[in-house]
Amino acid sequence: MLRKSMMAMTCLLVASTSASAADDAPATPSAPAAAKPVTAMEEPLQGDFWTFELRDEISGKITAVRTHLVTEVSPSEISIRVTTQGKETEGMIVFDRSWNVKTSGEWKYQPGDGSGIHTPLKVGDSWSFSADDVNNAKGYIWKRSGRSKVVGQETVTTKAGTFETYKIEATYLRRPTNDPTRKNDITTVVWYAPAIDHWVKRSLASRANGHLLLNNTFELVEYGRKN
């Protein structure tokens, strides 16, 4: 609207002044910067990375900047080293080839945590999942079950660029086997971009026995692959 108003104003000025005064007319605003080109990364390779800002939606603050770096790729697994800006400690997450978490720190998800995708993605498709979340170090076992659905296709713009994505919503329930009165109800929304074989935005809300515990959003700020 601003650009249209300025262009209209310029036309009126030109019509009402002599040719010698045309040099004094306001300059037309420059065109907006072009969107960043998307680097194709359909298949994961060692050295690929994705950096995310983590926002706590309850406080409204950015609480962490984390980078996922591919350290190893096999026919069945993708290993990721996780680093957090400003911290020396590193973590390791192992995914299957559909981006379901198999292990994360002390936790093992058998057969996987269900947070991944089902290809080929198609709007309207849905699938169920169930798993055991096992922490042998602390003696914890949680049961999880849920359902995911591809609810649409959306164009998403982040600091890393503009991406064509599939929007996948999931809801699931977690209960500890030693205390079935406790439960976590979790809702996630993932915007997955096939061009870079990863999510560019992800939200997670967790309620413990009905009370909101977490409400976080991860947004892609940088990505790339080893030359």
Summarize the structure.
The chain is mostly beta strands.
* Major sheet summary line: 12 strands, antiparallel, barrel
Poorly predicted runs: 1-33
Adjacency order of strands in the biggest sheet:
1-2-3-4-5-6-7-8-9-10-11-12
Spell out the helices and strands N to C.
HEEEEEEEEEEEE
Report the C-alpha radius of gyration, rounded: 24 Å
Mean pLDDT, rounded to whole units? Answer: 87
Which secondary-structure class do the elements indicate? mainly beta
Rounded to the nearest angstrom, the distance between the terminal CA atoms is 43 Å
Percent range for β-strand residues:
over 45%
Helical content band: under 10%
What count of helical segments does DSSP give? 1
Number of strands: 12
Task: Give the overall silhouette.
Answer: globular
How does this structure look, described?
This protein has 227 residues and is mainly beta. It has one helix spanning 2-16; strands spanning 49-56, 61-73, 77-84, 90-96, 101-104, 107-110, 126-135, 140-158, 161-176, 184-193, 198-208, 211-224. The chain has a twelve-stranded antiparallel β-barrel. The protein is globular, with a radius of gyration of 24 Å. The protein starts with a helix and ends with a strand. The model is unreliable at 1-33 (pLDDT under 50).
Write the layout of secondary structure elements.
Blueprint (H helix, E strand, L loop, with lengths): L1 H15 L32 E8 L4 E13 L3 E8 L5 E7 L4 E4 L2 E4 L15 E10 L4 E19 L2 E16 L7 E10 L4 E11 L2 E14 L3
